[in-house]
Amino acid sequence: MEITPKRAVVLLSGGLDSATVLAIAKAEGYELYALSFSYGQRHAWELEAAKRVAASIGVTQHRVTTIDLRAFGGSALTDDIDVPKGRDAEAMSHGIPITYVPARNTIFLSFALAWAEVLGASDIFLGVNALDYSGYPDCRPEFIAAFEKMANLATKAGVEGRQHLRIHTPLIAMTKAQIIATGTELGVDYGLTSSCYDPGPTGAPCGQCDSCLLRQKGFRENGIEDPISKR
C-alpha cells in the first residue's frame, strides 16, 4: 500500500524565524510546500532570501504569490513612511509600531489555507512570536487559535471531514536567542536569511530597525556572530 506523505504549507518570508520554522517542519517529517508573498513590501530583498532558504533546506515546491498591499498602505513597509530606527527595548515593548502591516497574517494564512486544501494538507506552519517581537496583534496566540477555528469552518474539505487543519507556531513562546539556538542545532544557514525592514540595494541590513536590533540581540545572547553582519 502506498503511504501518502504528510504535507505542510510553510509561510516563508526569508527571515530568521521562518527559516527556523521550515527546518522544524522538515525535522518533524513533513513534505514541505513553502509559500512566500510579494506584497509590495519595501524589503522585497527578503524574497531572494526565501528562495535561497527553500533551496537550502529542501522543499517540494516553493511558490511566490503576488498581492498588492501598497493599495492600502498604512504601514512603513507598504507606504511612504519612514521605518523607525534606533529604538531601545523599552520603546519596542510599548504600542503597535508603524511597521505593522494591516491584516497581513490574516491574508497570508488565508492563502495558505487555500493551498493546503488543494494539496490535501492538514498542517500550516508559520513563524509568529509573542516574546521578542515588535507588538504585532496578529502574532498573538489568541489570533492563531481564532484563525484555526475559523479555518476549520471555511473549507469544503473541512465540512466533508477530509481535513482538520492545524496551525503550528513552534516559535511563539521562544525568545530570539532560543529561536537561533534551535535553528543552529537543525543546521539552518542564517547567512542566507534577511530580516531587515529597510535593507540596502544589495540586501545589506540597516542594523538599526526593530527587526535588525532584535536579531542582533538574539545572536549576541548566543555568543555567536550573525553571519550577515559581514555583508
Explained architecture:
- By secondary structure, the protein is of the alpha/beta class.
- The protein has one domain (7-226): Rossmann fold.
- Helices cover 37% and strands 11% of the residues.
- It has 8 helices and 5 strands.
- It has helices at residues 16-27, 45-57, 89-92, 104-119, 141-154, 156-159, 176-185, 210-222; strands at residues 7-11, 31-38, 61-66, 123-125, 166-168.
- The chain has a 5-stranded parallel β-sheet with strand order 3-2-1-4-5, with helices on both faces.
- Helix 1 (16-27) runs parallel beside helix 2, helix 1 packs across helix 7 and helix 7 crosses helix 8 (210-222).
- The radius of gyration is 17 Å and the shape is globular.
- The model has no long low-confidence stretch (mean pLDDT 91).
Give the overall average pLDDT: 91
Query: Strands of the largest sheet, in order across it?
Result: 3-2-1-4-5
Global outline: globular
Content-based structural category: alpha/beta
Assembly context of the chains: single chain
* Spatial separation of the terminal alpha carbons: 50 Å
CATH homologous superfamily designation: HUPs
Major sheet: size, sense and barrel closure? 5 strands, parallel
Strand residue percentage:
5-15%
By CATH, the topology is: Rossmann fold
Determine and state the CATH class: Alpha Beta
Order of helices and strands: EHEHEHHEHHEHH
* Rg, Cα atoms, Å: 17 Å
Estimate the helix proportion, in percent: 25-40%
Instruction: Give the number of helices.
Output: 8
Architecture per CATH nomenclature, i.e. the level-2 architecture: 3-Layer(aba) Sandwich
Number of strands: 5
User: Which residues sit in consecutive blocks of at least 5 with pLDDT less than 50?
Assistant: none
How many independent structural domains? 1
